[in-house]
Amino acid sequence: MDDVLDLSQTAFLLEQPFVQTALAAGAVLALLAGLLGPLVVGRGMAFAVHGVSELSFAGAAAALLVAGTAFVGVGALIGGVVVAVVFATMSAKRRENDTVIGVVLAFGLGLGVLFQSLYTGRTSNKFSLLVGQIVGVDSEQVAVLAIVGVVVAAALVALYRPLLFASLDPEMATARGVPTRTLAIAFALMLGTTTGLGIQIVGALLVLALLVTPAAAATAVTANPVAATVLSVVFAEVAVLGGIVLSLSPGLPISPYITTIGFVIYLVCRGVGALRLRRTGRRSLTVPA
Amino acid sequence: MTGAPTGHATAGAAPAAPAVALRGAAVERGTRRLWSDLDLDVPAGEFIAILGPNGSGKTTLLQVLLGLLPLAAGEAQVGGRRPQQGSNRVGYVPQQKALDPNVPLRGRDFVGLGLDGHRFGPVLGRRRRERRARIDDALHQVGADAWADAPVGRLSGGEQQRLRVAQALVGDPDLLLCDEPLLSLDLAHQGVVVDLLDRRRRDHGTAVLFVTHEINPVLPVVDRVLYLVDGRFRIGTPDEVMTSETLSELYQAPVDVVRVRDRILVVGHEDSVVHHTGAADDVLMPAPTHAS
């Protein structure tokens, strides 16, 4: 293992079309996840994202069993979108929500495992739904991903302020006439679609890492919502593209690379945030009454 | 005066229209009628305290004026027009409720949401600069310039509530609707918030409807009281409404109102639930200090 990072081999692999396709897919997915991440964190939906990705996995596994490999993507999308919308229409009490999500998540995961064990095809197809199979991505998938990326980015530009308002300050937003329920469903559609596409590429387990970790890191260093979104996208891109490139020559799965890079970024950001807080101290409270 | 181009209703087409006009108004929650036959005219610059026990329909009245709830009967107008959701002619100050410490908003973002958080689409070009100027002005009006770039989640409850007032003022409203804005604030911050509201209505003629459990913190600035109990109500100056006779009639139970210096103490007896005490004790109300 003295060639953990063999540069010449990495360079060679980078020229291969399947690697370039994987990089393109990863880049679009990281953009999507980076854009949605701060809203996921702001809405306190990390656990909901986990639930959505597990149910998306169950949908994909069901599709694989019933209709074959060609329909895995459709199954993943349906599973992700339906569950995201169901979660979005649940009551606004977050405590209660987490319980419901936990219940649904466990059931979905169980179903997924059942479908997978009933499936008699190639085992690599099964495993890839959990940990992803980014080198198996074809250019058609990248095209779909790019279209979804453009649609979600455009929707975010149009909905950004009301969505931010409804996510971070829901009571005030309601008082100001923001259609919080409609926006919750719109956000669920974006989230479900991104998750459904994401699990085919990086797997159900990594979707969480992409939708939550970069945004959590970003919001630790800035309270500016636009800056947080930009940073979240940058962190997601660094983790995904960096993870893919580093995983090439050792021939190991990309998941540990992406999660580790993301985690290191998160730790550094938390450190920077804590340092800054200590330096400025608690802002002076004295009110000139 | 803000540097913003938009004027007040008084500068607009109908200068005579009161900030709020209710005619034979009634509201229902489900099938329960909370109150009816309410007539109320609130001229520009008036400060009205709305009192009453829980469930008497105080907040519901604000919801009607915010355009969130239709009347069951009668008519409601805000500045001569029907209440409209998301109107910048109406500012809203809610109860203080701590924000998540990591909420990704700075003071100016928070105030900006009050201006156009309900609008779709991006803000571009010249509108961006105008927006910034209005936000800076609102921050300045509440003396919160220093927190413009501070993360709101890290500010104290009192500081956050001051930003709430800025959030309500940034649209340059003709009417401010306040729903228990002093709750869980310490005395010093209660005073700050009341001063800010009072100054706003004196300088800009903004009418204030102020829902509260506790009249004393606003007593020096209140023009009239709307007291709601179980569908019965009384409107008048504090001296007219806050009397043993009137409150006993409203509660249909003996209630004593005592004036001590510049404070009003309301004492309910036995089982009569007088709002001020909150708990079932029949002692008295004031002690407006709530730990934040």
From TrEMBL, chain A:
Pfam families in the record: ABC-3 (PF00950)
Name under which the protein is recorded: Zinc/manganese transport system permease protein
InterPro entries: ABC_BtuC-like, ABC_TroCD
Entry keywords, A to Z: Membrane, Transmembrane, Transmembrane helix, Transport
SUPFAM superfamilies listed in its UniProt record: ABC transporter involved in vitamin B12 uptake, BtuC
Family: Belongs to the ABC-3 integral membrane protein family.
Topology in the lipid bilayer: Multi-pass membrane protein
GO CC field: ATP-binding cassette (ABC) transporter complex
Cross-referenced PANTHER family: ABC-TRANSPORTER METAL-BINDING PROTEIN, METAL TRANSPORT SYSTEM MEMBRANE PROTEIN TM_0125-RELATED
Localization of this protein: Cell membrane; Membrane
One of the protein's GO biological processes: transmembrane transport
Segments passing through the bilayer: 20-41, 62-88, 100-121, 142-163, 183-213, 225-248, 254-275
Organism, scientific name: Actinomycetospora cinnamomea
UniProtKB/TrEMBL annotation, chain B:
Leader peptide range in chain numbering: none
GO molecular function: ATP binding; ATP hydrolysis activity
Keyword Transport: yes
SMART domains given in the database record: AAA
Superkingdom of source: Bacteria
Domain ABC transporter: 20-255
Keyword ATP-binding: yes
Family the entry assigns: Belongs to the ABC transporter superfamily.
Protein name: Zinc/manganese transport system ATP-binding protein
